[in-house]
Amino acid sequence: DNLSSKSWSQGWRLTLSLFAGFAHLNNVQKSLLQVDVEKARHRQARLELITNVQLQFLALLQAREDLATAEESVKRIRKQLEASEAFVRVDMAPYANVLQNRVELSRAQQEVIRCKNDIRNAEVQLNRYLGFSPHERITYAGRLQDFHGVVSYTEEQAIKTALYSRPDLIVAQKSVAVAYKDTHIAMGEFAPRVDASYEDTRFSKDYNDRRYNDYTRSYWAIGLNFSWDIFSGGSAVFN
Asked: For residue 205, what pLDDT band results from cuts at 50, 70 and 90?
């Protein structure tokens, strides 16, 4: 008909929360605390890795020292066994000495095998900590004599430093702070909300019949909204 037309509208709305029971502030503070928690956990993981590498390396050096001692014992007991067998052949010693030396030799050989197993286990653990394959042969150089047992701080200073820099304690403290922020966020649900809004809309209508003039209208509105949840089925209380 003569009034056939095309119409369209477009608009946008902007809403700004002015007050929400300090929920926004508590959420920001909670996020910052969670960042500190993750940083402390990352630092803790790094320190644990460093400590494990150091302890395992020292265990490897200790096992090498034990192996050298065990091999020296094998050599010494073999000489004693040879001497006891010689004395038995000339009837200068009882045969029990030979049996006793054989038992001690067997124990010393078992100690050598145990030390070699400890060395291999320590190398496999070091490979795992350092990101190498367990079967890859890595040369770990060093001796226990290269480490000096003198430290530049007292035990009290070490404990004090640990209390202020231990990541696990920092994680625990920050986690408690995060829990308090959750409590404040839940308490904020009991408070009223105040929002400011601005809305802008444009409406246009185009007639197919040129006898009628097309027109366009623009509307805008500014508002201040106040809302307060009086009853929420107990969800705020249980949170």
From this structure: confident
95 within domain boundaries: yes
* 18 and 226 Cβ atoms separated by less than 8 Å: no
Start-end of H helices in 90-234: 95-130, 155-165, 167-188
| Residue 196, CB-side half-sphere exposure with 13 Å CA sphere | 3
Q: Which pLDDT score, from 0 to 100, does residue 61 have? A: 94
Around Cβ 122, how many Cβ atoms within 10 Å? 21
> In this structure, what token pair is assigned to residue 156?
């009290």
- pLDDT tens digit sequence for 18-61: 888 788 888 899 999 999 999 999 999 999 999 999 999 999 99
- How far is residue 135's CA from residue 191's CA, in Å, rounded to a whole number? 63
> Is 139 contained in some domain?
yes
Residue 224's H or E segment, with its range, is strand 215-227
- The CATH number assigned to the domain holding 126 equals 1.20.58
Range of the domain at 151: 44-164
User: Is residue 58 situated within a structural domain?
Assistant: yes
Q: Is 5 left (phi over 0), alpha (psi -120 to 50) or beta?
A: beta
What is the C-alpha to C-alpha distance for residues 238 and 161, in angstroms, rounded to an integer?
41
CA angle at 201 for the pair 198 and 204, rounded to the nearest 5°? 170
Host H or E run for residue 7: strand 5-19
Query: Does 196 reside within a domain?
Result: no
Counted domains in the chain:
1
Q: What is the pTM (predicted TM-score) of this model?
A: 0.64
